[in-house]
UniProtKB/TrEMBL annotation:
The keyword Hydrolase applies. InterPro entries: NUDIX_hydrolase-like_dom_sf, NUDIX_hydrolase_CS, NUDIX_hydrolase_dom, Nudix_hydrolase_domain. PROSITE patterns: NUDIX, NUDIX_BOX. It holds the Pfam family NUDIX. This is NUDIX domain-containing protein. Keywords: Hydrolase. Residues 1-152 form the Nudix hydrolase domain. It comes from Microbacterium gawkjiense.
Length: 159
């Protein structure tokens, strides 16, 4: 069965005509020393019967400990990872959303592997605004088409 996730990609226009995206660095021991390909839009799996946008907003709140901004959300598309996992990304103008006050959600896993011990780790360990092109380089490969699509839509809106 294909895993279905939903997430939120916030963007904002910078004063000089640039665009920034809000992304989160994945938590846990596997991602701790990685940067490129270790960032993501706040996202997570849908629960049974849950609407996709509702799941995206719930996951944003669970991962960051803050509510997603009140905004007009539009479905950017559904993007497939090489693993087969699919993530539906919603986009919104995040102007005014400050990257602060986070209380990161946690998950448990056996660590170190095969030790029989369980440890708790943050789902994400930091989140920040960064230029759209830089964010695209840093997110996991399966999400890069979402950033490309956002750039296309913003470019078309400029013309």
């Amino acid at each position: 069965m294909v895993t279905q996730s939903a997430g939120i990609l916030l963007y904002r226009l910078d004063g000089g005509g640039g665009v920034s995206a809000f992304v989160a660095h994945m938590g846990g021991p596997y991602w701790a020393s990685k940067d490129e390909g270790a960032w993501s839009v706040p996202k997570g799996e849908l629960e049974d019967g849950e609407e996709t946008l509702d799941a995206a907003k719930r996951e944003f709140r669970e991962e960051l400990g803050v509510a997603p901004p009140e905004a007009d959300y539009a479905e950017l598309g559904t993007f497939a990872y090489s693993s087969g996992k699919r993530v539906t990304v919603f986009v919104a103008d995040g102007a005014g959303f400050e990257a602060e006050g986070f209380v990161f959600g946690e998950f448990e896993m056996e660590w170190p592997p095969r030790s029989g011990r369980t440890a708790s780790f943050p789902e994400v360990d930091r989140a920040e605004w960064m230029p759209l092109d830089r964010a695209r380089e840093r997110v996991v490969k399966g999400q890069r088409p979402a950033f490309d699509r956002l750039a296309e839509l913003l470019s078309a809106a400029d013309t």
